[in-house]
Amino acid sequence: EAQVTQNPRYLITVTGKKLTVTCSQNMNHEYMSWYRQDPGLGLRQIYYSMNVEVTDKGDVPEGYKVSRKEKRNFPLILESPSPNQTSLYFCASSYAGVGSGLDEQFFGPGTRLTVL
Amino acid sequence: GQNIDQPTEMTATEGAIVQINCTYQTSGFNGLFWYQQHAGEAPTFLSYNVLDGLEEKGRFSSFLSRSKGYSYLLLKELQMKDSASYLCARRDNYGQNFVFGPGTRLSVLP
Question: What is the structure's pLDDT at A99?
Answer without folding.
Answer: 52
